[in-house]
Amino acid sequence: MTSRNPLSRRAVPVLISGLVLLPLVASLLMRSTDPALAADWRTARNDSSHQAPDPATTPQAVLQVYAARTFGWRGALGVHTWFAVKPPDADHYLRLEVIGWGVRSGWPAVRISRHTPDAYWFGNRPKILLQRRGQAAEALITQVLQAAKEYPYPDSYRVWPGPNSNTFTAFVARQVPGLGLELPATAVGKDYLTGGALTADAPSGTGKQVSLYGLAGLTLAAEEGIELNILGLVFGLDLSPPALKLPGIGRLGLGM
Q1: What pLDDT digit, counting tens, does each position of 105-144 carry?
Q2: Helices 135-150 & 165-175, crossing angle to 10 degrees?
Q3: How far apart are the C-alpha atoms of 35 and 21, rounded to whole Å?
Q4: Which of 120, 193, 202, 214 is most exposed, with minimal Cβ within 10 Å?
Q5: Contact present, 86 and 62 (Cβ < 8 Å)
């Protein structure tokens, strides 16, 4: 009888720890040089990033989805996501998102406001994840607004593993598969399935996922590719376009 090598038993946890820690350390180091990290939340930049079409000169409907790194050191780990919608001929946008501040004091977690649609998020410039205009946006806007009303955690917020802002965005995306929204790997909380479900459509609507309360899971989809969720952090391989997905860092490769 041969004895098992104790080193081989340690190899898997050491490898997993390395896969988690190395990208996070790299992301923290990159984040440490970002001026937004040193900003005071009371004075951090929150003006327009000039990515949303001006309603005064854009009569057509507009639907956009944004993501921006979160405030402070947490920005090394993840992003905050939200919707900005403008029905046809409207003179303003509606911004739909989940925000944790004030929830403990009785404020709703789901906020629908006229806040600047493309504003910097505490000094962090947002990135457009998806954009639709004209007739392609009109029906989707109606569906997005309805899905936001049906979100099952309107008064609840938990940074990790969810429900949080990314849980909300992913929920709406699943309810409106016509969006075809692929959320970034850094959208921590997107894999927290509502209602305690263990399986669901991927947010893009192009595949399936299994998830244990957002702490462990697997997604297989045409848009997301292969994503492995470990403690809310995503490792993945995207095939179209080719890219690696790493915790904190996000996408390494072509495309967004």
Answers
A1: 999 999 999 999 999 999 999 999 999 999 999 999 999 9
A2: 120
A3: 24
A4: 120
A5: yes
